[in-house]
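Review form for a predicted model. The reviewer records the input and the model, then writes brief findings.
Reviewer: anonymous (R2)
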Amino acid sequence: MIYRRINITFLFIFSISFLIDWFYFPLPWWIYFGATLVYLGIVTYGVVKIDSQFFIPVIFKAGILKSEVAITFDDGPHPQRTPYILDILKEYDAKAAFFCIGKNVDENPDIVRRIHKEGHLLGNHSFFHSDFFDFQSTKKMEEELSMTDDAIKEVSGRKPRFFRPPYGVTNPRLAKVVKNRNYVSVGWSLRSLDTIIKNEKRLFNKIKKRIKPGDIILFHDHSVVLTDILPEILEYIRNIGLKIVRVDELIEEKPYA
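Model under review:
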C-alpha cells in the first residue's frame, strides 16, 4: 500500500534526522516541523482523494480504449427521485449502478427490488452514511457494512461485492474491513458535483466538457437538478459515440459474491 511506503519513508527520514542531531550537529526545529507537515499533508490527501488508492486498491475508471462509460448513483434509494430515474433509464435502455445506503434499502424495499429486476447493479455504500463513519472502529465499520449487505441480499437475493466508501474517504481501519470482506472498491473518474451545482446548464456543461471513454460517472439519486437533465445527459453520451454499460461490465469484475 502507498500508505505503508509513505510511513516507511518518513520513518527513515526522521531516524536519519535524529541520528544526525544526536551524533553530529543539532538540526533546527523547523526541519522536524516541516517534515511533519509534509507527512500530514500527504496522508490527508490520501484520506480524501479516493483515486489516489492511498489505503486501498480502488477501481475508478477503465482504459481509454473502451468507447464505454458507466453511470453510478450514490445515497439511494430515494422514495421520489429514484423511481423517476429508473423511468428515464428504462426509456433510454441504459443500465446503471446504485450504491445504496442500508437504512434506505430497509425503508424502500420495493424500489430496490425494481432496481434489481430492471437489470441495474446494487452496491454497498454503508448503512447510515453518517458524517462520523470514518471515525468508527474497524469493528463498527464492519458491522455497518455487513448490515447493508444483509439488507440488500434480503431484498434482491444477491450479496454485493462492490463497495463505495461514504464521501470517498478512506483510512487504515476501513482498509482492513475492505480486505476482510473481500470487497471491490469502486470510485469514480468524473464527479458531477450534482449535490452542489444547482444550475442545470452549468451541471450539463461540466459533464459535457469532462466526459471521456472509460469514465465512471458519479451521480446522486436525490439530486433534483440531476434528474431534471438526465435525459439530456444520456442523449449527449450516445451522440458522441459512447456506450453506456453497467460498471461491472466496464471494469470486468464480478458484482456479487
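Findings: The chain has a mean pLDDT of 95.
Further findings: The first strand starts at residue 68 and ends at 76.
Recommendation: see findings above.
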